[in-house]
Design a protein that fits this description.
Elements: E1 12-16, E2 30-32, E3 37-44, E4 52-60, E5 64-69, H1 75-86, E6 92-99, E7 105-121, E8 133-139, E9 142-147
Antiparallel strand pairs: 1-6, 2-5, 3-4, 5-8, 6-7, 7-8, 7-9
């Protein structure tokens, strides 16, 4: 009988495909928005007021949110600024890789046609003792999931 242990949720990396490689740009403290939901439409059943029928319409994906300590020389931030400030929207694919103990991917979420919709930094507070956190938010069309 083998013992199964679920993977840890803190060993991962994020790669924006099509940008020059930078070892610091793959490190994030938090990733959210990796979910899918089936949107449905409710239609009253004709002649029978007690029942509703639910029909699937499309799959919905929330926006992807990445958080990390503020990185000054970031290719991702350069791309975000081009999209948001200059309105030069260039969608890119993003890979989120959950890693094992040998730093090899266990699962990879391939996020298709993402572009930034928001960039924000945490509040600056002279009485606090915290690192400046930047939050990057992306719209994307869909994702696929690969098991290694």
């Amino acid at each position: 009988m083998s013992n199964y242990y679920p993977p840890v949720g803190f060993h991962f990396k994020v790669e924006v495909l099509g940008l020059p490689p930078n070892d610091h740009d793959v490190r994030f403290t938090e990733v959210s928005g990796l979910s899918a939901e089936l949107a449905t439409e409710e239609i009253a059943e004709g002649g029978e007021n007690r029942f509703l029928q639910k029909y699937p319409i499309r799959t919905k994906y929330p926006e992807l949110v990445l958080k990390r300590g503020l990185l000054l020389n970031s290719e991702i931030l350069t791309w975000i600024r081009q999209c948001i400030e200059d309105l030069q929207i260039q969608p890119k694919n993003i890979d989120v890789k959950l890693l094992n103990e040998q730093h090899q991917p266990l699962l990879t979420w391939h996020i298709a046609n993402a572009y930034p919709t928001k960039w924000a930094v945490s509040d600056l507070n002279a009485t606090g003792n915290a690192v400046v956190i930047e939050s990057l938010q992306f719209f994307y069309q869909y994702f696929t999931l690969d098991k290694s």
